[in-house]
Fold this protein.
Amino acid sequence: GLLLDVNRGDWLALLLIIAVVWLAEGMNSALEQLADAAVPEFHPLVRKAKDVAAGAVLITAVVAVILGLLVFLPSQRILISRTSLQTNLFIASLTIVGLSWWVAMG
């Protein structure tokens, strides 16, 4: 934390979001295995459920990247103001969430 000027609260947030991504991935894997065991043949609802679960993993991963950028970019002294960076990341995250929802609901 000293090298990158990351405080305890930021480290806590980073560790929490890493755990959330791992949790989402574990739930996604469990759902896929359960769905494959319950319905071995193709079924459109099973495909949709798998897509939604994968979309949840994608969303948590994107949030983790955004959080990482918000924590680490200011310490790297990038020539972008933090306000405009947060605005751009917010717009990008909304776009990704919207696209994920659109793909999942297909």
